[in-house]
Structure formats: C-alpha cells, structure tokens
Amino acid sequence: MKNFKDKNKIKAYSSLKHKLYFLSLVFNIGILLIFILSGLNSDLRNFIAGASTSFYLKLTIFYIVFSVAFFILGLPLDYYDGYTAEHRYSLSTQSKKEWLKDTLKKFGVSLGIGIILILTLYYLLRNFSSIWWLLAAVFYFLFSVLMAKIMPIVILPLFYKQKPLESRELKESLLKLAKKTGQNIKDVFEIDLSRQTKKANAALVGSGNTRRILLADTLIKNYTDEEIEVILAHELAHHALKHMRSILIFGGVISLGIFFIINKLLVISVSSSYINNLADMAGLPLILLIFSTLSLIISPIQNAFTRKLETDADRYALKLTKLNKAFISAMEKLTEQNLSDPEPSKFIEIMLYDHPPVAKRIKLAK
User: Fold this and answer.
1) DSSP codes joined into one string, 147-190
2) Is residue 196 part of a domain?
3) For 254-278, how does the pLDDT look when each residue is reduced to its tens digit (9 = 90+)?
4) pLDDT tens-digit profile of 8-17?
5) Is 213 helix (H, G, I), strand (E, B) or coil?
6) Residue 197 in 3-state DSSP?
C-alpha cells in the first residue's frame, strides 16, 4: 500500500465528512420528529384545508411548504458540508453564488421528483388502501428504471455541460472495450466537473439509446489512457455482469418490505387516532420518518451487497484489461485527488461504504 504524502489530510477530510453525514442524519430525523410530536403536521394540514377543493392540490401545497421549511432549516449544515468543508480542503472550485445556484437547482429537481412520487403514493393510499404498499413498491421500481434512462439527457445537463470526447484514440479504445463486454454504447462524453470540484469521476449512464460513457474533465487531465480504460472497464463490468438488474431487484425487494412495514404502522396510527385515515396528508412526515429509519437500519446490508458487486466488477475489469498496474495507480490517484480514506474503520466501512475501501481494491489487484 502506497504511503500517501497527504495521509493526515485524507484522514481529516474523511473524518469530517463522516461526522457531517451522521450529523445530517440526526438533524433530518430530528426535524421529522418535531413535525410529528409537536402537531405541526396536523396544523399545516388544517391551515391549507380551505385552499382548494382538490385533495391533490392541497397535498402538493402541503409537500411544497414542508419541503421548503426542511430545506431552509437544513441550509446552514448543507452550506458547511458542501461549501465550507470543500474549500477548507481545497477541493471546491465554486464561488458562493455558484454553490447556491447549484443547491437551489438540486432542490428544484428533487422537489419536482418528490411531488410526482408523493402524489402517486397518496393516489394509491386513497384508491387501493388494502394493497397500496404492493403497488407503491412496483411503481417505485418502474420509476427507478425510467429515471436511469432519462437522467443523462434530462437531469445531468442541468448541472454539467457535456461534449463529445476530443481524443479520438481514447474514444475508440473505450468503445472497443465496451464491445468486448457486449455493451452498445452511444458515445463518449466529457463533462465539466471542474466547474464544481477538483475531484475526479467517470460513469456509464443511461439505458438503451441514452447509454453513454461520461468522463470528468478532471479525470481526463490527470490520468493516463490506460488508467481511464481500466476505470471504465470497472463501470462496464457492472453492465456485463447484469449488476444494474440485480441492484434494481434488490432495491425493489427492500422497498416492498419497507412499504409493508409503513402500512402496518400507518394502520396503528389511524387506530390510535393520530391521523384520520391512511391517506391523511398529516401522516407524510411519519411516512418519511419510517422510511428514513428503516433505510438506515438496512444500510449495512445494502452496502455489503453493493461492495460484493463492486469487488466482482474489479475482478472482471482486471481480467478483461490485464492492466493491474494501471488500476493500482488509478486507485492511488483517486485516493489523493478525492481525499477518500483508503483504510476506514470497520464501522465506517459497514455503515457508509458501498464500494470496498481502496486498500482492499489495491490488494485484490496485487
């Protein structure tokens, strides 16, 4: 294992980000509990009761007001996490104005998606009260598939400029590599990640005719063609090994279990007169709290599952390219450039890492 020259900086940054993650988690759960225990959820429902005769319009207003309040209350923590900490460790390239613009954009996108999901959820609660949890799990599964398809052409362009990769040699090499794995890739694009950060990344996104390879300009600038090739081989491996399907199915099963438990707890809430009925919009913070808590509880299982897939993808990429040295050097560069802890504690690995720590990935390559 390489002796990183910025080891203390890497450890300090990773430790701070981990603490901020758990602080954010406690904050979010705390705000939900305040809404639930103080009766603010019922007060908000009653306040907008006369706004319209349409239940779904009132629900939309309820969700927007709730989301805006949540966003404003969490903004100081988001600012420290996304701007102050990133500048402290010389990772961010954004001004305060640019950071705020992107943050508002992210909020707008998440709010729009959230409205679609919440309206659908409550439609099912109102019209299929006995099996809503089953239908909700099916819908969320199909929605995930749709989002994977439209993300590269609808959402990503809102945050990054994409342009065809200029290096014909690298492009041909990557498309040739994709064919070896049986993938039909539309094109290879460069995105201006440097507009936001000094970190590097690469991805294979989309499905069908929207599938494409994305390379951050920070990656193209600092990595050799062989290093980029083996990094992309890892991404291609996920598709060659049908990992996307496995992740969607796994996520679907998890969602089914979560919605089933939410249904049971909502029934108890109705019987105890906390909410008027299953489709009472005042129960939304309760639904979000249950969903968040259950997601946290099962996160070690999800992380273990995805770490296994990531290890399989590493093995596939190394076998396909035979570029073990390039893989090791790429992992070392990513560690230093992204300040990611190569050897986190076991607790942090279990709770937060959906990829194996870099030390284990390098050990595999050796």
Assistant:
1) HHHHIIIIIGGGT--EEE-S-HHHHHHHHHHHHHTT-----EEE
2) no
3) 999 999 999 999 999 999 888 899 9
4) 899 999 999 9
5) strand
6) strand
